[in-house]
Design goal:
Elements lengths: L2 H10 L3 H6 L17 H14 L4 E5 L7 H18 L3 E5 L12 E5 L2 E6 L1 H7 L1 H11 L8 H7 L2 H16 L3 H12 L4 H8 L4 H11 L1 H41 L13 H45 L3 H6 L2 H43 L3 H46 L1 H6 L3 H55 L3 H42 L25 E9 L8 E8 L4 E5 L6 H8 L4 E9 L2 E2 L5 H7 L1 E3 L8 E2 H5 L7 H10 L3 H5 L8 E2 L8 H15 L3 E5 L7 H13 L5 E5 L11 E6 L2 E6 L1 H5 L5 H8 L2
Parallel strand pairs: 1-2, 7-14, 7-15, 10-13, 13-14
Antiparallel strand pairs: 3-4, 5-6, 5-8, 8-9, 11-12, 15-16
Helix pairs in contact: 1-3, 5-6, 9-10, 11-13, 11-19, 12-13, 12-15, 12-19, 13-15, 13-19, 15-19, 16-18, 16-19, 18-19, 23-25, 25-26
């Protein structure tokens, strides 16, 4: 690594303050797909990676889309115009921020997949005057270099807070097993026996959670069927032994009486055969009943836990999703639910079978030769300590295998997704080597797990051999001196030969069950999440049907925080928004303007003050009622898999005429008309079959269909092109003319036509007035934003 160059790239991309937050600095693991980073941080790291390379050509695909004005300007000045130009590297820049066009040596304008025009800026001004006039308002930016303190301020407070929260969540989101292990080890590091005792403890609480989800009736059926089945299996074997003993006795008697066959001496197999057949039929029925009970139990438990988990996640506060990695939540629904659904029932059935078979075998041996009970005690103690140490090792090795498998799968998926970047940077050997390292680590863990199973098997075979030896000696001695029947001797020896196998599988199944119950424990951890307070002081019937009618908003001494452990992001905010007003809210990133929009929907902790909409305090409303009466358009437009009709009107209340009207207002009617099915045309996952701008317009149409008198636009134009932004602004000013619109502005020129502008800084209102009044003040912060945006 070339340190001076590395430092220069970090400075050019304004990454140093972000790196300082990370616990291990630039050596911190950022997780799969950079889960702990914000979109802007990911983008700056990607640009920094390209700047650090020494290639002669650099392709930058919209590198400013997730950055604010200050970060964009700094990256343009220090990274592109300074570093890349000084190194004489060719830059191909794709962007919708046309204010940077004056810096380009050659411009290519695209439209509908073809080149509309190309040349220098002067050439385009002469050849395409109309196009140039459209660009003109966005091109007059002052080429300015920001001072170091300006750069420091431009690094977003919000990104840093999110990064801190993400790092905290990565530290906090551990399994309860790990937390218990660490607490035990910290309390008694020197006492190894105490540590082993705690780690060898069976997770009874998770076991109780699993069994309680099945219900008393089903558990009783499962337990009864298992006991009856294994009792019947012992009865069948005993009956065979009894039958055999009588046959041998009959043969001896037949020989003494000179009978050619035992039937001639009055012995009949019919009685024994009929009883044996009845017992076998009952055994088949009980085996079927046991299998049905096990599967039924597994299905009911999986359904119950999944239903409860889904309800908890749906009703969980937004704080959970901010502090918990998405992959962790998805794992609860995928890997852990699959374990509960597919693996635990099978393991539970195998564990109960091997345990009852082992108990049956030892019981039969003790019945045949009671003296065996003397040897049973030391053998049981030996078996206990073997299983105790094996379970600890097996659990750790299985967790190690799982933990080494996840990086392998993540690396593979990341390699496939980032193949273009990997090939462009010629990192194929490095990623191939990492793949081999992850594969080796996983194979080593798997090898040691197999070796541990062999370790257990050898020791269980030793114990089984001891059982066979003691049972054989005791049975033969008992037969010789106490005239024990040959059938019972054979029965005892048969069961003794199977003990080692039963013990081996019992311990292995117990270890597997302990690991698999970790899934129940992790799900149970999420089930403890406190849901949002959906109930309000007012009932749904007490809220007027058309509320809010006017759209008047009163914000009174409002203080907001994301969590009780965090500092407020809004502090004693007061504002009054009249019905039908168009209000613009601006400020540097992290100033609290987005927290404003979250407060309207009670997605943050409003621990002081209140928001009153049309004379009703929103804190008193049922949460579902509040959110269903307001509309919001976010920076990242969200469309769901399904039809256009479903995305515009999920509740299916609007008529076709209303939907077409909304599409016409959003200027999407011609696009939808050409699709097969029209309103019933399919939207793919995430709306990938539409452009970013079209997805945003669909969200606007959806807001129009809802007929809400209040519309919140949270940086809705930040990631769309100029043409779509113009459509969006026009629709808001016409179709929403009689509604209250609160616009969180990413680009201040979008709120110049607002009735009122609110400028925020560090959670407080810095300025609050009409746009023109603020522009007339030379020392106005809003005026400085507008000047910087020109």
């Amino acid at each position: 690594m070339i340190k001076p160059r590395y430092k220069a790239v970090i400075d050019a991309c304004s990454l140093e303050p972000d790196i300082d937050i990370l616990p291990q600095g630039d050596q911190t693991e950022i997780g799969e797909r950079g889960v702990i980073l914000s979109g802007g941080q990911k983008q700056r790291i990607s640009v920094a990676r390209a700047l650090y390379q020494t290639t002669s050509v650099v392709f930058l695909d919209d590198p400013f889309s997730a950055l604010d004005i200050h970060l964009s300007d700094h990256l343009m000045q220090e990274g592109i115009l300074k570093m890349l130009r000084e190194e004489k590297r060719t830059v191909v820049l794709v962007t919708h921020k046309l204010q940077y066009l004056p810096h380009a040596d050659w411009i290519i304008a695209m439209k509908d997949g073809t080149i509309q025009t190309e040349g220098t800026l002067k050439d385009i001004q002469k050849a395409e005057p109309e196009l140039f006039e459209q660009w003109k308002s966005l091109m007059h930016r002052k080429d300015q270099e920001f001072e170091k303190e300006t750069v420091a301020e431009s690094v977003t407070d919000l990104e840093r807070k999110n990064l801190r929260r993400a790092m905290y969540s990565r530290e906090a989101v551990r399994t309860e097993d790990e937390e218990e292990e660490e607490s035990v080890e910290s309390e008694d590091d020197d006492n190894l026996s105490q540590v082993m005792r705690q780690r060898a403890t069976i997770p009874w609480r998770s076991c109780g959670t699993y069994l309680s989800s099945a219900g008393v009736l089903l558990l009783s059926l499962l337990l009864l069927s298992q006991l009856l089945k294994h009792s019947l299996m012992v009865a069948i074997d005993y009956w065979l032994a009894h039958w055999t003993s009588h046959v041998i006795s009959a043969k001896i008697e037949a020989t003494a009486r000179n009978c050619s066959v035992v039937q001639d001496c009055g012995f009949s197999h019919s009685w024994y055969l009929s009883i044996f057949s009845v017992l076998c039929c009952l055994g088949i029925i009980l085996c079927l009943a046991t299998s049905v009970a096990v599967e039924w139990t597994g299905h009911k438990v999986a359904k119950e836990l999944h239903h409860n988990l889904l309800n908890k996640i749906i009703l969980a506060p937004m704080r959970l999703f901010e502090t918990t990695p998405l992959g962790s939540i998805l794992n609860r629904f995928s890997t852990d639910t699959n374990t509960i659904d597919q693996h635990i029932p099978t393991t539970l059935e195998c564990l109960s079978r091997s345990t009852l078979l082992c108990a049956s075998a030892l019981g039969v041996i003790s019945y045949v030769t009671p003296v065996f009970l003397i040897a049973l005690l030391p053998l049981a103690i030996t078996c206990y300590f073997i299983q105790k140490y094996f379970r600890v090792a097996s659990r750790d090795l299985q967790q190690l295998e799982d933990s080494t498998q996840l990086p392998l799968l993540s690396h593979f998926s990341e390699t496939v997704e980032g193949l273009t970047t990997i090939r462009a940077l010629r990192y194929e050997p490095r990623f191939r080597q990492r793949l081999l390292q992850f594969t080796d680590a996983n194979n080593i863990a798997s090898l040691f797990l197999t070796a541990a199973n062999r370790w257990l098997e050898v020791r269980m075979e030793y114990i089984g051999a001891c059982v066979v030896l003691v049972a054989a000696v005791a049975s033969i001695t008992n037969s010789l001196y106490n005239h024990l029947s040959t059938g019972l001797v054979g029965l005892g020896l048969t069961y003794a030969l199977m003990v080692s196998n039963y013990l081996n599988w019992m311990v292995r199944n117990l270890a597997d069950m302990e690991v698999q119950l970790g899934s129940v424990k992790r799900i149970n951890g999420l089930l403890k999440t406190e849901p949002e307070n959906y109930e309000g002081l007012l009932t749904v019937s007490q809220v007027p049907d058309g509320w809010p009618h006017e759209g008047e908003i009163k914000i009174q001494n409002l203080s907001v925080r994301y969590d009780a452990t965090l500092k407020p992001v809004l502090k004693n905010v007061n504002a009054h928004i009249s019905p039908g007003q168009k209000v613009g809210i601006c400020g540097r990133t992290g100033s609290g303007k987005s927290s404003f929009s979250l407060a309207f929907f009670r997605m943050v902790d409003m621990f002081e003050g209140r928001i009153v909409i049309d004379d009703i305090d929103i804190a008193k409303l049922p949460l579902q009622t509040l959110r269903s009466r307001l509309s919001i358009i976010l920076q990242d437009p969200i469309l769901f898999s399904g039809t256009i009709r479903f995305n515009l009107d999920p509740e299916m209340k609007a008529t076709d005429e209303m939907l077409w009207e909304a599409l016409e207002i959003a200027q999407l009617k011609p696009v939808v008309k050409t699709l097969p099915g029209g309103l019933d045309a399919t939207i793919t996952e995430g709306g990938e079959n539409f452009s970013q701008g079209q997805r945003q317009l669909f969200c606007l149409a959806r807001a129009f269909v809802r007929k809400s008198s209040i519309l919140i636009m949270d940086e809705a134009t930040a990631s769309i092109d100029m043409a779509t932004e113009s459509i969006l602004q026009k629709v808001v000013m016409t179709a929403f003319a009689d509604r209250t619109v609160v616009t969180i502005a990413h680009r201040v020129h979008t709120i110049l036509n607002a009735d009122v502008v609110i400028v925020m800084k560090r959670g407080i209102i810095l300025e609050h007035d009409k746009p023109q009044a603020l522009l007339d003040k030379e020392d106005s912060v809003f005026a400085s934003f507008v000047r910087a945006d020109k």
